[in-house]
Amino acid sequence: MSSNQQREFQPIQSIGRQGLLDRIEAIPGVQHPDVIQGIGDDAAVIGQDEDNVTLLTSETFMEGVDFDLVYHPLKHLGYKCMSAAVSDIYAMNGKPTAATVDLALPTKISVQMVEELYRGLQSAAGENEVQIVGGDVSAAHQALAISISVYGEAKEDRVTYRSGAHKDDALCVTGDLGGAMAGLRILMREKKFWQEQEGEDVAFQPDLEGYEYAVGRQLVPKARRDLIEKFEELDFRPSSMIDITQGLVNELYQLVRAADIGAYIYQAAIPIALETRSVADEMKEDVDRYALYGGEDLELLFTLPEKQVDRFAKEFTDFAVIGRITDASEGLKMQTSEGDVVLFNEDDQQSPNP
Amino acid sequence: MSSNQQREFQPIQSIGRQGLLDRIEAIPGVQHPDVIQGIGDDAAVIGQDEDNVTLLTSETFMEGVDFDLVYHPLKHLGYKCMSAAVSDIYAMNGKPTAATVDLALPTKISVQMVEELYRGLQSAAGENEVQIVGGDVSAAHQALAISISVYGEAKEDRVTYRSGAHKDDALCVTGDLGGAMAGLRILMREKKFWQEQEGEDVAFQPDLEGYEYAVGRQLVPKARRDLIEKFEELDFRPSSMIDITQGLVNELYQLVRAADIGAYIYQAAIPIALETRSVADEMKEDVDRYALYGGEDLELLFTLPEKQVDRFAKEFTDFAVIGRITDASEGLKMQTSEGDVVLFNEDDQQSPNP
Asked: How many CB atoms lie within 10 A of CB A158?
């Protein structure tokens, strides 16, 4: 350790994830002439030839931080991690081709458990037409770590960046939001209940009746390949796109920052499943917080020129218009269901996650 | 967990790393038509167009398993991890273009420490003309984890696989072997000494005088881009190639298995640096074990048709011929410095690593 490190210990928490990413980005490095887009979008974009680009993304999932093996069956876990990884390729309007998977395995993980995990990885890989082409297995001391990198392709003129939104574009979101958070709430409650059954040597068997939808959203989320295929089929290109992994408000900030725009959303327009509402009610929590800040839904947030919306809606129904793009000076605003207008403050991005 | 997992707990140790990889490979998955080589080589090979291919590899480095922060300064650690990751692209006779880096960061890691690590990553990336194009930062409970995936390119007709060696080809290795292991030995001794100074609140300041070469091999190994550039310049293509990260004997097994061949090596021909010998003497250990089983040297092991060796040696001097390729029925044999011939047994691949 250099003396500099000994003098100064600034916890990462004090500047946050984005602050750390900004600090890392400031460190100079090589610019390769083939790279079209480096750090700063869902995936990097690298030129292949005149027409085609490579898309590259990677993600690491850590036990105890990103998942809990008590309520995450390994097969589902593999499925979820692969879905989340390929979702970043879809968010660029591309299609994934291949993935590598690195596993760091503590001794509590058996051969059979690795096989279960892999079956889940292959299940999601299959649905997304991705071949697992490599990867490493290594030991870990305590926590299971799963790193996935995905390679995808797109026509260069179809790649969609975070930064492409224009004023008055419609803000659209696929599916519904907050379901993964609702599912997490249920699973955490069941885990707590199970832990209270002290001394009883039984495996965790949560009672999930009536919560299948929400729990499924948490455990086995699907990446939205269907949207990308529809865009391709109809030759539509959204002006910007991002996948929702860190919660709607956070992703909106990413779009707003990247394109130097503002956004205005309608709380009443945010799609929320009935079961998600029931869970929030049962937990005595605000379902809008699930929808605004809950992550992991793997839905796609995209912008379309206003005049294209109706045409697209005739061909693809599983999306909702939740607002529109405004000037940067407007910031990020929401008209609440009661009719008030609130301005989001970037420092106030707490998720309802405990 | 399924009832199957509860019945059966087979520790990974019981089948080993290769056994686990074989089990994983047996799980069915999608075959993508663009993939030319999936699991089973240093990097995956994916077709781009008629002439060019993409190379893809990833590796995860775990604290406590792959490195020890007590003696691994973070800047060096970043350098080493990036070198090791790009080395897999060189082992395919390609060149790296871009990399993604995922960091899982425990709270003991400060912002400044991440910056140091990144400076090292960028330093090796710069030497290898690689742009870091993305990556993720996330929390970890205890151990620092670094996952790097590298994207590279090659002309399809220049890609070199593990499986290409033919009978009578010369077995060649760049640089010298066992140095990284010797360096590790020195660092471990210094760590032990330091830990014995109990109660003294001083930073670890190892006395490395006289061991600069070996310690450098352990802490800041260079990937052998120079060999790949020379091959390109002279339009040579080795018949097979692999990088030495798990030790010479292990890599020889990979070549032998992939090409269904045998190999015969001469112990006296294995290049070992003087300082590596001194360290082994000092430790009262067998330097040949360092050279045969010590990993992390990041040298390249390759085969060349016998008649090309002299011509290549006129243009590139930093390699040695250590043996030749034989029939599969011959297995993997070594003529010792004393003139005996030993047959390696794949189950007996202990490294001198404690």
From this structure: 17
pLDDT per position as a tens digit, A192-205 = 887 887 656 666 67
Distance from CA of A158 to the nearest CA of B (A): 17
Report whether A175 contacts A291 (CB < 8 A): no
* Rounded Cα–Cα distance for residues B253 and A242 (Å): 45
What integer pLDDT is reported at residue B133 of this predicted model?
96
Whether A38 sits inside 8 A of B100 (CB atoms) is no
Name the residue facing A46 among B31, B114, B151 (closest C-beta). B151
Q: Residue B274: which H helix or E strand, with range? A: helix B274-283
CB B54 within 8 A of CB B155: no
The residue type found at B198 is: E
Q: Which helix (H) or strand (E) holds A303?
A: strand A299-304
A208 phi, psi to nearest 5 deg: -110, 15
Q: Which residues of chain A make contact with B23, given a CB cutoff of 8 A?
A: 111, 114-115
Ranges of residues in chain B whose predicted pLDDT is under 70: 1-7, 198-205, 347-354
Nearest Cα of chain A lies from the Cα of B5 at a distance, in angstroms, of 6
What residues in A contact B17, CB-CB < 8 Å?
Answer: 137-138
A268–chain B nearest CA distance, Å:
33
Q: Dihedral angle at the C-alpha atoms of A278, A281, A282, A285, nearest 10 degrees?
A: 130
Partners of residue A147 in chain B, C-beta under 8 Å:
58, 60, 102, 145, 147, 149
Q: Is B319 helix (H, G, I), strand (E, B) or coil?
A: strand
pLDDT over 70 percentage in chain A: 94
Which of chain B's residues have a Cβ under 8 Å away from the Cβ of A44? 98, 100, 133-134
User: Which of the 8 DSSP states describes residue B352?
Assistant: S
- What one-character-per-residue DSSP string does B128-193 give? TT-EEEE--EEE-SSS-EEEEEEEEEEEGGG---GGG--TTPEEEEES-SSHHHHHHHHHHHHHHH
- Show residues of chain B in contact with A48, CB under 8 Å: 48-49, 52, 54
β pairing state of A145-155 and A95-105? antiparallel
Q: What is the mean pLDDT of chain B?
A: 92
- Report the alpha-carbon distance of residue A158 to residue A89 in Å, rounded: 12
- pTM comes to 0.92
Residue of B nearest to A6 (CA): B203
ipTM rounded to 2 decimals = 0.90
What is the mean pLDDT of the segment spanning A5-11?
73
Interhelix angle B274-283/B212-219, rounded to 10 degrees, is 100
**A151 and A247 Cβ atoms separated by less than 8 Å:** no
